[in-house]
Amino acid sequence: MRKLLVFVVAAAMLVPAAFAAEGDREKDVERVQAAGTVLDEIMAAPDSGIPEEVIGSADCIAVVPSLLKGGFIVGAAYGKGVATCRTTNGWSAPAFFVVEGGSLGFQIGGQAVDYVMLIMNEKGMRNLLSSKFKLGADASAAAGPVGRHAEASTDWKMRAEVLTYSRARGLFAGVSLNGAVIKQDKDDTRDFYGRMVPFSTILKGQIAAPQGSEPLLAAARKYSGPAAVPNAGSKMPPPPPPAPTNEEKKDESK
Q1: Residue 89 lies in a domain
Q2: For 160-206, what is the HEC assignment?
Q3: Any domain includes 233
Q4: pTM, whole model, 2 decimals?
Q5: How far is the C-alpha of 65 from the C-alpha of 32, rounded, in Å?
Q6: Dihedral angle computed from the Cα positions of residues 27, 33, 37 and 40, in that order, rounded to the nearest 10 degrees
Q7: Which residues partner with 142 through β-bridges?
Q8: In this structure, what are the phi and psi dihedrals at residue 9, rounded to the nearest 5 degrees?
Q9: How far apart are CA 34 and CA 73, in angstroms?
Q10: When comparing pLDDT for 226 and 194, which is higher?
Q11: In 10 A of CB 178, how many CB atoms?
Q12: Which secondary-structure segment (H or E) carries 25?
């Protein structure tokens, strides 16, 4: 009888934890969806959005969507975002991160601000894969060009590893985020994947995209082109081959 009572009490304690974990994952799924929506809305107005040549050349796309709940801005002091990178097998699964510090302002006059960061070359990608880096110190960053097409005279391909943008009150513009620190959001990573997965493992395409990933990945494919053929400057390695089975190991030893 005592064993049965202990089992019932333990089960009763686990049920709320399970519901809490599911609720946390739902919040992460909402963020992925919000990130895809931000890209859709920005690119729907090409005359004042990210030039096609710029987003089409990006190796990684990171979005910090503002989340409004009941009129309150969630995370006004810092931002929570999600990123995806080109791999040889398509756009990677979403990687969750936080961005804080610098001259960030995630609300202006009570209105939330969305941020978009485009990682433009291999060095910028290496910094992103490190799971923590500082814009302007570890990686050069600059306000990105805006418009239907980037002017041929601009040097956006050469001047920065990360191009940054912001949108507030319906206005979209390039913005400097120098001083901001970007690092992996380990708690949300655990909630979304059910376990801790390193930033580099996710962004190198070494883990399958779980349910709830599609809104951001669909937007990346739509506006940046298919990722099966990476940029010429990108040298992101393909996922490692699967580990050999016991039978294969025996064959190799013969």
Answers
A1: yes
A2: CCEEEEEEECCEEEECCCCCEEEEECHHHHHHHHCCCCCHHHHHCCC
A3: no
A4: 0.73
A5: 9
A6: 160
A7: 163
A8: -65, -45
A9: 14
A10: 194
A11: 17
A12: helix 2-43
Cβ neighbours around 201 below 10 Å, total: 18
What is the number of structural domains in the chain? 1
| Percent of residues, the chain, with pLDDT higher than 70 | 61
- Mean of all residue pLDDT scores within the chain: 74
Closest CA to 49 of 167, 216, 224: 167
Range of 12-21, 29-38, 154-163 with top mean pLDDT: 29-38
Rounded Cα–Cα distance for residues 162 and 140 (Å): 6
Of 156-165, 226-235, 240-249, highest mean pLDDT: 156-165
Indicate the SS3 state at residue 108: strand
Burial class (CB in 10 A: 0-12, 13-18, 19+), 130: middle
Q: How far apart are CA 222 and CA 43, in angstroms?
A: 10
- Give the Cα separation of 187 and 207 in Å (integer): 18
Residue 243 lies in a domain: no
Range of the domain at 78: 11-224
Please give the Cα distance from 138 to 20 (Å, whole number).
36
- Read off the tokens for 211: 């349910």
Mean pLDDT across 30-55: 88
3-state secondary structure string, 36-58?
A: HHHHHHHHCCHHHCCCHHHHHHC
End-to-end Cα spacing for the chain: 57
Convert 62-90 to b/e letters by CB count within 10 Å (16 or more is b). Answer: bbbbbbeeeeebebeeebbbbbbbbbeeb
Q: Is residue 96 part of a domain?
A: yes
**What is the reported pLDDT for 200?**
93
Cα 115 from Cα 128, distance rounded (Å)? 16
Distance (Å, whole) CA 108 – CA 248: 60
